[in-house]
Amino acid sequence: VKHPLQNTWSLWFFKNEKGNQWKDNLRLVTSFSTVEDFWAIYNHIQLSSKLPTGCDYMLFKQGIEPMWEDVQNREGGRWLLTTDKKKRAQDLDRVWLETLLCLIGESFDDASEDICGACVQIRQKADKVAIWTTNAHNKDRVMAIGRKFQARIKLAPESLFYQKHTDTANSASKQGSNKSKYEYII
Ligand code: M7G
Questions:
Q1: H or E element, residue 148
Q2: Who lines ligand 1 at CB under 6 A?
Q3: Which of 91, 123, 138, 163 is 20 to 30 A from 53 in CA distance terms?
Q4: Residue 77, beta-bridge partner list
Q5: Is this prediction's pTM over 0.80?
Q6: Which residue from 12, 16, 17, 22 has its CB within 8 A of the most atoms of ligand 1, so it is best to mutate?
Q7: What is the mean pLDDT of each run of 10 residues along the chain (186 residues)?
Q8: How far is the CA of 136 from the centre of ligand 1 (A)?
Q9: CA gap 138, 75 in Å, rounded
């Protein structure tokens, strides 16, 4: 008999095909709701560190699309971890797996309700791992999630920032402005 998870989770994949709209490059891979199905999928897909530049994996609760526009994300934000390229080989896959286990294991106590999902993004300059939460104003839950996340991934404290999706979207649309605004820092 399989061991049920508290939530059903959907795995998404993003591949940067130039000329397409961002949403057209996003694919729902599969959904799962047991521990055994999680490992079957995890063991079947490519490790993050082996993906080409520009690709993302996203793991979101079923029913929440991995985009700012989803009603569950609109008021939310993300704890963002930017990983040192030099340490990628040793850190990225470990950090992403730990992130996945935090999510499916509901590791954030009551604050687990605020979890929407998580992403890993392979980029030229620095890879990113982020946990998305549903409401940037739920400060207690946001902080509880951030602290737990930091403790679980065991990385340097200065590297974790929380950013509202509205601020991420704004700074993305303003050309030349790469100033990032952060709500919370651990
Ligand atoms: P990114 O892939 O999150 O980071 O965003 P990157 O700059 O390191 O590659 C790149 C671009 O993808 C953004 O500037 C947006 O144009 C688009 N994009 C990313 N996200 C997460 C969304 C989203 O949730 N909704 C929409 N409409 N576009 C997005």
A1: helix 139-153
A2: 22, 67-69, 121, 123, 172
A3: 163
A4: 133, 164
A5: yes
A6: 22
A7: 96 95 97 98 96 97 98 98 76 94 98 98 93 98 96 78 94 66 87
A8: 18
A9: 10
